[in-house]
């Protein structure tokens, strides 16, 4: 059995299929871990959702910002952007089943045997792993409860940008969602920046630092697998592996086999407008 990890699909279903064929992925015995943003921008978000759902327990996916936005748009709480190409999902006969499945996916997933944790954007540098688990579980419980529409309606916004244990209610939930699904840069004091999407090497980033370069008071003890930040183009160091290599923008999709570190790369056409 092999464990495969893949970056943001964003509806680029044909590219995912080509990549899995290249790696000889066997759904009868292998595992597929997906770093979120299954939908949006690419041409086949509906097919992607159906495929991952049908893999059952052979697949583990975390929620990304585009996945959450789809849930909000499907419930009339946000506008579905035409460039996101999710209308086929909203028109599908199995839409309710797919959306119900999607809202029950986690923000944070940890492999039971291998020493890695997965979150779409990463894990806040202000958190230890115990805090990250607790905050993920609280938001997941709300998203899976009868209060999920309230959460989807009120999750939008860039604040609060700093974690403190006294946060509660929607402020606590919003910080957690932003950290797990939208985070890229932080200020040196740990505050989240929700605007800059540049490469860390870009001269206009100023004092901002990638979230994974800020010191932690307590090491996580696991490698963090994340997507979301295409400008990193597959950054890897001793603490993190970034798997979003910009498939939807005409770069490539990357699949990593955990056991031996083998990488499989599929060059992609431009899908996003």
TrEMBL record:
The keyword Hydrolase applies. Residues 2-177 form the Calcineurin-like phosphoesterase domain. Keywords: Hydrolase. Pfam families: Metallophos (PF00149). Its EC number is 3.6.1.41. Transmembrane segments: none annotated. GO terms for molecular function: bis(5'-nucleosyl)-tetraphosphatase (symmetrical) activity. The keyword Hydrolase applies. It catalyses: P(1),P(4)-bis(5'-adenosyl) tetraphosphate + H2O = 2 ADP + 2 H(+). Belongs to the Ap4A hydrolase family. HAMAP family: ApaH. Hydrolyzes diadenosine 5',5'''-P1,P4-tetraphosphate to yield ADP. This is Bis(5'-nucleosyl)-tetraphosphatase, symmetrical. It comes from Photobacterium alginatilyticum. The lineage of its organism: Bacteria, Pseudomonadati, Pseudomonadota, Gammaproteobacteria, Vibrionales.
